[in-house]
Amino acid sequence: MSALKSAGVTFIQGQFKNKDRSCRRCGNNWVGHEEKETDVNIGIHLLNDAYKDLYDHALVMTADSDISPAIKMVKENFPQKFIYILNPPKSIQSGELIRAAGGFQFSREIKEAHIGENLFPQKIFDSSGILIAERPKEYNPLSE
User: Fold this and answer.
1) Are strands 107-109 and 82-87 parallel, antiparallel or unpaired?
2) Is residue 21 part of a domain?
3) CATH number of 101's domain
4) Which residues touch 131 (CB under 8 Å, ≥6 apart)?
5) Count of domains in the chain?
6) At what angle do helices 68-77 and 38-51 cross, to 10 degrees?
7) Residues whose CB is less than 8 angstroms from the CB of residue 38 and which lie 6 or more positions away in sequence, other chains included
8) Closest CA to 74 of 37, 42, 110, 105
9) Which among 14, 49, 82, 129 could bridge 37 via Cys, Cβ 3.0 to 4.6 Å?
């Protein structure tokens, strides 16, 4: 996250909560994790920032249609604002999201090649030269 912050990106996230899980077949129990609130947080910020006139164009990277009502509300109240849906690689595009944004012209799929072409440098330093982040080796392109 420090790499994103160094590039001026505001990162909006939810949280993971523990959730008890069990297998009906074998009876085993374990604690799993469930993501909560990310779509709500993004929707609230999208609408709040529209009211504050902090953007003209917004890029929302998601395949989760739960954010559709917030996008519809922004579009209804601020028809001059454009919201583009960036669909993560290998995920199914949501027709509801695409309709909320205004149609297919406001939707693009992120391909794995796009990610490889837009990686941060191997090492990221702050303005005083202190290392703040290092790209994990498993993210390195094959050519490095």
Assistant:
1) parallel
2) no
3) 3.40.50.1010
4) 123, 124, 125
5) 1
6) 10
7) 12, 13, 14, 64
8) 42
9) 14
As a whole number of angstroms, the distance between CA 58 and CA 47 comes to 11
Residue whose entry in the numeric block shows the structure tokens 């953007």? 55
φ, ψ of residue 110 in degrees (nearest 5): -85, 125
Could you give phi then psi for residue 112, rounded to 5 degrees? -60, -35
Nearest to 10, CA basis, from 69, 60, 75, 84: 60
CA 44 to CA 84: how far, in whole Å? 16
Dihedral angle of Cα 79, 111, 6, 60, to the nearest 10 degrees:
20
Domain-embedded: residue 75: yes
Among candidates 86, 41, 91, 84, which has minimal Cα distance to 61?
A: 86
Query: Measured between alpha carbons, how far is 39 from 96 in angstroms, rounded to an integer?
Result: 14
pLDDT along the chain (144 residues), means of 10: 79 79 91 84 94 96 92 96 92 91 92 85 89 86 62
Distance CA(24)–CA(3), nearest Å, equals 42
